[in-house]
Write a structure and sequence with these properties.
Strand order of the largest sheet: 9-8-7-6-2-3-1-10
Strand content: 25-35%
Shape: globular
Number of helices: 4
Order of helices and strands: HEHEEEEEHEEEEH
Helix content: 10-25%
Distance between the termini: 15 Å
Largest sheet: 8 strands, mixed
């Protein structure tokens, strides 16, 4: 998929891959008592074998240099990649409160869905929100994710093709 394809693809988010949600829950628990934070990335549903147009949240991008404590997680704005696959954010609330704080709302502008995970990080301890902080529905979808090693399986010819050389 070239850059123009990425810019004009379907923007409807169909849901989050079950494996991706499990990763976020486990990462939130592992980071406790500090907040966990990452950015959500998506894959075209058709690439995952679904017969629907739209995106499935399949990846969580962790930005190096993210600082967190028990009440906040901070990412240096200059470290956030300009990623056409970015769909929103995910972070935890170690206090278990699953609603956005004022600080959360100020960071929700980037992307269309934001997930808050609350302690004790069970399968039911998360909620999705729109950019204004209103609760929104996010389906959990059971799909086979591409092998992560395939991400690094490319050649110079692949890079040249992607860059249109």
């Amino acid at each position: 998929m070239g850059l123009l394809d990425a810019l004009f693809r379907s923007s409807e988010i169909l849901g989050i891959a079950e494996e991706t949600l499990e990763f976020a829950l486990e990462s939130s628990e592992a980071t406790h008592p500090n907040e966990y934070m990452g950015f959500l990335r998506g894959t075209e549903a058709t690439q995952l074998g679904l017969e629907q147009d739209g995106l499935v949240i399949t990846d969580i991008l962790i930005v190096p240099g993210t600082e967190s404590n028990s009440v906040s997680a901070t990412v240096r704005t200059s470290s956030i990649p300009n990623d056409v696959k970015a769909l929103g954010s995910v972070h935890s609330h170690p206090n278990g409160v699953m609603r956005p704080s004022q600080a959360d709302l100020e960071t929700f502008g980037r992307g269309t869905v934001h997930i808050i995970i609350g302690a004790p990080y069970r399968r039911s301890d998360w909620k999705a929100f729109d950019p204004q902080g209103r609760p929104t529905r996010l389906n959990v979808i059971d799909v086979d994710l591409p092998d992560s090693e395939e991400f690094f399986d490319f050649t110079q010819a692949d890079i040249d093709e992607e860059l249109g050389r």
